[in-house]
Protein backbone atom coordinates (compact mmCIF):
# COMPACT_ATOMS: atom_id res chain seq x y z
CA UNK A 1 0.00 0.00 0.00
CA UNK A 2 2.86 2.41 0.68
CA UNK A 3 2.30 5.70 2.50
CA UNK A 4 -1.06 7.39 2.90
CA UNK A 5 -1.86 10.42 5.01
CA UNK A 6 -4.49 12.96 5.98
CA UNK A 7 -4.00 16.48 7.28
CA UNK A 8 -6.57 16.31 10.08
CA UNK A 9 -6.45 20.06 10.75
CA UNK A 10 -4.11 22.86 9.79
CA UNK A 11 -3.94 26.49 10.82
CA UNK A 12 -3.42 28.83 13.75
CA UNK A 13 -6.28 27.20 15.69
CA UNK A 14 -4.79 23.70 15.68
CA UNK A 15 -2.64 21.27 13.73
CA UNK A 16 -2.55 17.49 13.40
CA UNK A 17 -1.67 15.00 10.67
CA UNK A 18 -1.81 11.23 10.49
CA UNK A 19 0.59 9.14 8.38
CA UNK A 20 -0.05 5.45 7.81
CA UNK A 21 1.32 2.40 6.05
CA UNK A 22 -0.08 -1.13 5.99
CA UNK A 23 1.48 -1.86 9.39
CA UNK A 24 2.13 1.49 11.08
CA UNK A 25 0.29 4.68 11.99
CA UNK A 26 1.73 7.83 13.55
CA UNK A 27 0.17 11.14 14.55
CA UNK A 28 2.14 14.33 14.01
CA UNK A 29 1.15 16.95 16.57
CA UNK A 30 -2.09 17.07 18.54
CA UNK A 31 -2.95 20.75 18.45
CA UNK A 32 -6.67 20.28 19.06
CA UNK A 33 -8.50 18.79 22.03
CA UNK A 34 -8.11 15.05 22.45
CA UNK A 35 -11.85 14.73 21.82
CA UNK A 36 -11.54 16.56 18.50
CA UNK A 37 -8.51 14.51 17.40
CA UNK A 38 -10.47 11.34 18.25
CA UNK A 39 -13.38 12.58 16.15
CA UNK A 40 -11.20 13.45 13.16
CA UNK A 41 -9.47 10.06 13.27
CA UNK A 42 -12.83 8.28 13.42
CA UNK A 43 -13.90 10.22 10.34
CA UNK A 44 -10.88 8.64 8.65
CA UNK A 45 -12.07 5.19 9.84
CA UNK A 46 -9.24 5.00 12.36
CA UNK A 47 -9.07 4.79 16.14
CA UNK A 48 -6.40 6.56 18.17
CA UNK A 49 -5.76 3.19 19.83
CA UNK A 50 -4.24 2.06 16.50
CA UNK A 51 -1.51 4.71 16.64
CA UNK A 52 2.08 3.65 17.21
CA UNK A 53 3.32 7.06 18.36
CA UNK A 54 2.83 10.82 18.44
CA UNK A 55 5.60 12.94 16.90
CA UNK A 56 5.93 16.55 18.05
CA UNK A 57 7.21 19.38 15.84
CA UNK A 58 7.41 22.01 18.61
CA UNK A 59 5.76 23.15 21.82
CA UNK A 60 3.36 25.89 20.68
CA UNK A 61 -0.23 25.41 21.82
CA UNK A 62 -1.66 24.98 18.32
CA UNK A 63 0.49 21.85 18.00
CA UNK A 64 0.20 20.26 21.46
CA UNK A 65 -3.21 21.21 22.93
CA UNK A 66 -4.41 17.61 23.13
CA UNK A 67 -1.02 15.92 23.35
CA UNK A 68 -0.96 15.05 27.06
CA UNK A 69 -4.53 13.79 27.13
CA UNK A 70 -4.02 11.70 23.97
CA UNK A 71 -0.80 10.15 25.26
CA UNK A 72 -2.31 9.25 28.64
CA UNK A 73 -5.67 8.01 27.33
CA UNK A 74 -4.15 5.69 24.74
CA UNK A 75 -0.81 4.97 26.45
CA UNK A 76 1.09 6.28 23.44
CA UNK A 77 4.82 6.98 23.17
CA UNK A 78 5.63 10.62 22.41
CA UNK A 79 8.71 11.58 20.37
CA UNK A 80 10.41 14.98 20.63
CA UNK A 81 13.93 16.33 21.01
CA UNK A 82 15.27 17.19 24.46
CA UNK A 83 14.76 20.96 24.23
CA UNK A 84 11.19 20.48 23.10
CA UNK A 85 10.59 18.06 25.98
CA UNK A 86 11.88 20.67 28.41
CA UNK A 87 9.40 23.19 26.98
CA UNK A 88 6.56 20.64 26.92
CA UNK A 89 6.86 19.58 30.55
CA UNK A 90 5.09 22.68 31.87
CA UNK A 91 2.20 22.35 29.42
CA UNK A 92 1.05 18.77 28.91
CA UNK A 93 1.00 17.20 32.36
CA UNK A 94 2.63 13.97 33.41
CA UNK A 95 3.74 11.49 30.78
CA UNK A 96 4.98 8.05 31.85
CA UNK A 97 8.75 7.85 31.74
CA UNK A 98 8.76 4.92 29.32
CA UNK A 99 6.55 6.94 26.93
CA UNK A 100 8.88 9.97 26.87
CA UNK A 101 10.99 9.19 23.81
CA UNK A 102 13.84 11.47 22.79
CA UNK A 103 14.36 11.84 19.05
CA UNK A 104 17.24 14.21 18.37
CA UNK A 105 16.96 16.62 15.47
CA UNK A 106 18.30 14.87 12.38
CA UNK A 107 17.63 11.39 13.74
CA UNK A 108 15.69 8.56 12.10
CA UNK A 109 13.14 6.27 13.73
CA UNK A 110 11.48 3.22 12.21
CA UNK A 111 7.85 2.34 12.88
CA UNK A 112 7.52 -0.95 11.08
CA UNK A 113 8.28 -0.22 7.44
CA UNK A 114 7.71 3.53 7.92
CA UNK A 115 10.97 5.43 8.32
CA UNK A 116 10.76 8.90 9.88
CA UNK A 117 13.46 11.57 9.81
CA UNK A 118 13.35 14.88 11.67
CA UNK A 119 15.13 18.02 10.50
CA UNK A 120 15.68 21.46 11.98
CA UNK A 121 13.62 24.49 10.97
CA UNK A 122 13.62 28.20 11.82
CA UNK A 123 10.80 29.20 14.19
CA UNK A 124 10.45 30.89 17.56
CA UNK A 125 10.35 27.68 19.58
CA UNK A 126 12.86 25.72 21.66
CA UNK A 127 14.09 23.40 18.88
CA UNK A 128 11.41 23.09 16.19
CA UNK A 129 11.53 20.38 13.54
CA UNK A 130 9.86 19.19 10.38
CA UNK A 131 9.55 15.54 9.38
CA UNK A 132 10.12 13.41 6.29
CA UNK A 133 8.46 10.01 5.93
CA UNK A 134 9.82 7.19 3.78
CA UNK A 135 8.54 3.78 2.76
CA UNK A 136 10.28 2.01 -0.08
CA UNK A 137 11.00 4.72 -2.65
CA UNK A 138 8.14 6.97 -1.47
CA UNK A 139 8.76 10.27 0.32
CA UNK A 140 6.33 12.56 2.13
CA UNK A 141 7.58 15.81 3.71
CA UNK A 142 6.00 18.10 6.30
CA UNK A 143 7.38 21.66 6.35
CA UNK A 144 5.35 24.18 8.35
CA UNK A 145 6.09 26.89 10.93
CA UNK A 146 9.03 28.08 8.86
CA UNK A 147 10.43 31.55 9.37
CA UNK A 148 12.19 31.03 6.06
CA UNK A 149 13.11 28.12 3.83
CA UNK A 150 16.83 27.64 4.37
CA UNK A 151 19.08 25.80 1.94
CA UNK A 152 19.21 22.90 4.42
CA UNK A 153 15.42 22.69 4.55
CA UNK A 154 15.24 22.84 0.75
CA UNK A 155 17.76 20.02 0.49
CA UNK A 156 15.82 17.99 3.04
CA UNK A 157 12.39 18.20 1.40
CA UNK A 158 13.47 18.24 -2.23
CA UNK A 159 12.27 15.35 -4.39
CA UNK A 160 9.23 14.59 -2.23
CA UNK A 161 6.36 12.71 -3.87
CA UNK A 162 4.00 14.85 -1.81
CA UNK A 163 4.81 17.94 0.25
CA UNK A 164 2.81 19.62 3.03
CA UNK A 165 4.12 23.19 2.91
CA UNK A 166 3.32 26.26 4.98
CA UNK A 167 1.62 29.14 3.17
CA UNK A 168 0.69 31.10 6.27
CA UNK A 169 -0.15 34.66 5.29
CA UNK A 170 -0.55 37.26 2.61
CA UNK A 171 2.00 39.96 3.44
CA UNK A 172 -0.29 42.91 2.70
CA UNK A 173 -3.21 41.39 4.61
CA UNK A 174 -0.90 40.90 7.58
CA UNK A 175 0.52 44.41 7.40
CA UNK A 176 -2.98 45.94 7.24
CA UNK A 177 -4.42 43.54 9.84
CA UNK A 178 -5.44 44.06 13.44
CA UNK A 179 -2.43 42.43 15.15
CA UNK A 180 -0.06 44.66 17.16
CA UNK A 181 3.09 45.54 15.26
CA UNK A 182 5.33 43.42 17.51
CA UNK A 183 3.28 40.33 16.57
CA UNK A 184 3.35 41.24 12.88
CA UNK A 185 7.11 41.69 13.06
CA UNK A 186 7.51 38.26 14.68
CA UNK A 187 5.40 36.58 11.99
CA UNK A 188 7.35 38.31 9.21
CA UNK A 189 10.74 37.50 10.76
CA UNK A 190 13.06 34.57 10.08
CA UNK A 191 11.62 32.95 13.21
CA UNK A 192 7.99 33.42 12.17
CA UNK A 193 5.89 31.97 9.38
CA UNK A 194 6.23 31.48 5.64
CA UNK A 195 4.20 33.87 3.46
CA UNK A 196 2.36 32.82 0.32
CA UNK A 197 5.05 34.50 -1.78
CA UNK A 198 7.91 32.80 0.06
CA UNK A 199 6.14 29.44 -0.21
CA UNK A 200 5.86 29.82 -3.97
CA UNK A 201 9.46 30.91 -4.41
CA UNK A 202 10.74 28.09 -2.21
CA UNK A 203 8.56 25.54 -3.96
CA UNK A 204 10.35 26.27 -7.24
CA UNK A 205 13.61 25.10 -5.64
CA UNK A 206 12.28 21.84 -4.18
CA UNK A 207 9.69 20.67 -6.71
CA UNK A 208 10.97 18.08 -9.18
CA UNK A 209 9.38 15.79 -11.77
CA UNK A 210 8.74 13.40 -8.90
CA UNK A 211 6.55 15.86 -6.95
CA UNK A 212 2.86 15.10 -7.55
CA UNK A 213 1.02 17.25 -5.01
CA UNK A 214 1.71 20.14 -2.64
CA UNK A 215 -0.68 20.81 0.24
CA UNK A 216 -0.72 24.47 1.26
CA UNK A 217 -0.92 24.42 5.04
CA UNK A 218 -1.02 26.40 8.29
CA UNK A 219 -3.00 29.28 6.76
CA UNK A 220 -3.81 32.22 8.99
CA UNK A 221 -7.55 32.71 9.43
CA UNK A 222 -7.03 36.45 9.85
CA UNK A 223 -4.45 37.18 7.18
CA UNK A 224 -4.98 34.70 4.36
CA UNK A 225 -7.53 32.95 2.18
CA UNK A 226 -7.16 29.53 0.59
CA UNK A 227 -7.94 30.85 -2.88
CA UNK A 228 -5.43 33.67 -2.43
CA UNK A 229 -2.72 31.31 -1.18
CA UNK A 230 -3.23 28.98 -4.12
CA UNK A 231 -3.27 31.86 -6.62
CA UNK A 232 -0.14 33.51 -5.19
CA UNK A 233 1.87 30.29 -4.99
CA UNK A 234 0.83 29.37 -8.52
CA UNK A 235 1.83 32.82 -9.80
CA UNK A 236 5.25 32.56 -8.14
CA UNK A 237 5.77 29.17 -9.78
CA UNK A 238 4.60 30.36 -13.21
CA UNK A 239 6.89 33.40 -13.06
CA UNK A 240 9.98 31.34 -12.24
CA UNK A 241 9.65 28.10 -14.18
CA UNK A 242 9.81 27.56 -17.89
CA UNK A 243 6.94 26.13 -19.90
CA UNK A 244 8.63 22.72 -19.93
CA UNK A 245 9.20 22.50 -16.18
CA UNK A 246 7.10 20.16 -14.06
CA UNK A 247 4.34 21.60 -11.89
CA UNK A 248 2.79 19.75 -8.97
CA UNK A 249 -0.91 20.05 -8.21
CA UNK A 250 -1.71 22.49 -5.38
CA UNK A 251 -4.01 21.07 -2.72
CA UNK A 252 -6.07 22.68 0.06
CA UNK A 253 -6.00 22.05 3.81
CA UNK A 254 -8.60 23.12 6.37
CA UNK A 255 -8.68 24.35 9.94
CA UNK A 256 -12.01 22.64 10.70
CA UNK A 257 -11.93 19.35 8.79
CA UNK A 258 -9.57 16.71 7.51
CA UNK A 259 -8.32 16.28 3.98
CA UNK A 260 -9.18 13.11 2.11
CA UNK A 261 -6.74 10.24 2.42
CA UNK A 262 -3.88 10.77 -0.02
CA UNK A 263 -1.93 7.75 -1.22
CA UNK A 264 1.54 8.57 -2.48
CA UNK A 265 1.35 5.84 -5.13
CA UNK A 266 -1.59 7.57 -6.80
CA UNK A 267 -1.06 10.09 -9.59
Structure description:
This protein is of the alpha/beta class and 267 residues long. Helix content is 28%, strand content 24%. The protein has 9 helices and 14 strands. The protein has helices spanning 34-43, 61-64, 67-74, 82-88, 151-157, 171-176, 181-188, 196-206, 226-240, and strands at residues 4-9, 16-20, 25-28, 53-55, 78-80, 100-102, 108-111, 114-120, 129-135, 138-143, 162-166, 213-217, 249-251, 262-263. The strands form 2 sheets. The protein has a 7-stranded mixed beta sheet with strand order 6-5-4-3-2-1-14. Helix 8 (196-206) packs across helix 9 (226-240). The longest helix is centred in the last third of the chain and has 15 residues, at 226-240. The protein is globular and about 50 Å long. The mean pLDDT is 96. It catalyses: 3',5'-cyclic UMP + H2O = UMP + H(+); 3',5'-cyclic CMP + H2O = CMP + H(+). This is MBL fold metallo-hydrolase.
Which characteristics define this entry?
14 strands, single chain, seven-stranded mixed β-sheet, alpha/beta, 267 residues
